[in-house]
Amino acid sequence: NGTERLTIPSDSAGIKFPATQAASSDANTLDDYEEGTWTPTVRGESSAGTTTYTTQLGYYTKIGNIVHLFCSVAYSAATGTGALQIKGVPFNNVDRVTMGAVRVQDLDWSGTPTYLVAAFQDASGTIVLNGCSDNAGATENTLSNESAGIIIQITYRV
Questions:
Q1: CB–CB of 118/152 below 8 Å?
Q2: How big is the chain by its Cα radius of gyration, in Å?
Q3: Residue 87: which residues within 8 A CB-CB, separation 6 or more?
Q4: For 74-109, what is each residue's pLDDT tens digit?
Q5: What DSSP state is assigned to residue 87?
Q6: What is the per-residue pLDDT for 121?
Q7: Would you give the end-to-end CA distance of the chain in angstroms?
Q8: What is the tens place of the pLDDT at every residue in 28-73?
Q9: N or C: fewer beta carbons within 10 Å in the chain?
Q10: What is the DSSP string of 31-67?
Q11: Nearest CA to 63 among 93, 31, 94, 36?
Q12: Which residues, 6+ apart, have CB-to-CB distance to 49 below 8 Å?
């Protein structure tokens, strides 16, 4: 009737969602919430190679069909070749054009980008780093055998 309100008792631990989504056909029903961790990996697009990690940290919050993703990955050596990719994303995205913030340390870039973005390469959940310059297109970074650190925060739809 529109007058009912959700009340959470003060001795409650909050709202609990079931471990397995109880999908609803009503588009206005929040029927899925999940928090978790994931392990980001770095590889080359042409040749995956091997990577020696010093940090692999990832976590996410999924609310309905929206995922808020964070990762911090650092490595001391990488033998892959081709465009640098971040793999292991917990949910595939539906929009390839999704982009997020990225911070890198000690990563060599071809050209001198004005800014960097993290973007999904395709709907499979592969993230690539793009260096963009004013009035120019984006260029993917090429993985080389170097040490580097990467932090990514991105929100996308599943």
A1: yes
A2: 19
A3: 40, 41, 42, 43, 125, 126, 127
A4: 999 988 888 889 999 999 888 766 788 888 888 766
A5: E
A6: 78
A7: 32
A8: 777 788 999 999 999 988 899 999 999 999 999 999 889 999 999 9
A9: N
A10: --EEEEE---EEEESSB---EEEEEEEEEEEEETTEE
A11: 31
A12: 43, 78, 79, 80, 81, 143
- Residue position matching structure tokens 């909050």: 14
- Going from the C-alpha of 153 to that of each of 35, 67, 79, 87, 132, the distances in angstroms are 15, 11, 25, 14, 17
For 80, other C-beta atoms within 10 Å of its C-beta total 21
Q: Which token pair is 145?
A: 């055998």
- 55/50 Cα distance (integer angstroms): 15
Cα separation, 97 vs 135, in Å, equals: 19
From the list 114, 108, 106, the residue with the least C-alpha distance to 148 is: 106
- Residue 43 to residues 77, 100, 104: CA-CA distances in angstroms? 11, 19, 16
pTM: 0.80
124-139 confidence digits (pLDDT tens): 788 988 777 665 555 6
